[in-house]
Amino acid sequence: MSRRLKFMSFNVRSIQSGFLTLKEYVVDCAVDVLGLSETWLTPDIDSSSVFINDFNVVRADRNSRGGGVAFYVRNGIAFKILHSNITAVLEELWISVKVNQRKYCLAIVYRPPSANVLDCFHQLTESLTNLSLDNDYAIVMGDFNINVLVNDGRSEMLNCFLESFDLSQLVKEPTRITSNSQTAIDLLMVSSADIISGYEVVDVDGISDHLALIFYKYTAAWKQEPEFKGWPRSSKKGSNYEFCKACNKDFICGKSKIQKHSSGKQHSNW
Hints:
CATH superfamily: Endonuclease/exonuclease/phosphatase
GO molecular function, one term: catalytic activity
Strand order of the largest sheet: 13-14-1-2-4-3-15
Number of domains: 1
Number of strands: 17
Organism: Acanthoscelides obtectus
Domain Endonuclease/exonuclease/phosphatase: 8-210
Mean pLDDT: 85
Protein name: Endonuclease/exonuclease/phosphatase domain-containing protein
Number of helices: 3
Pfam families: Exo_endo_phos
Shape: globular
């Protein structure tokens, strides 16, 4: 018996302002892994205010207004936090999800519109090089503020990045529509075409001026993974981890377990 492992990527432009609508949509659509950019959360905001039943939330916040990225992972899906980094050129959060003995390296990212594009891809290159090696697949999603419907210097740099890692960028239609523009800036990059069985661009009404990406993979129905432990990698000074509430936690198949450790402690293998 097979089922769809369903992912969603969305620039929410303040998770708190439309949270009830977002929560209802995620539940109704049976999303398994949700990646959000521009959460607009800060470290002083408790994750209980953005809690979704049967999900764990992992956040990387700015210390100031705007930006921020987050993942929600459904209970029963084994995952571990790999890395997060909040800089002026790129905000990124990486996790590894394990389903039916396959490991998916997932990133949710946000590049501010004014950020240097070349510096953004330098940072992303370093992360992807270090983090994707121990995984079967890599999926990078989020708002890059690079319009792939236009051939310019930014899209050329994006294409160079894709070629260097043999990635495919799947989004070909507008993801942000305003009264005077239609741009495809919310992107989906995959390391292999067979990762994704299908995707669609959808309007989550009343939340954001961005459209959401829903994509899925047909897979055998999975059982809850056995307990495993994983520690985040050391990250550059200023990077922010928030595992559910305030400190660092070790997630075990949907049940959060508080651990006290130094940021330099090495994570264990799967």
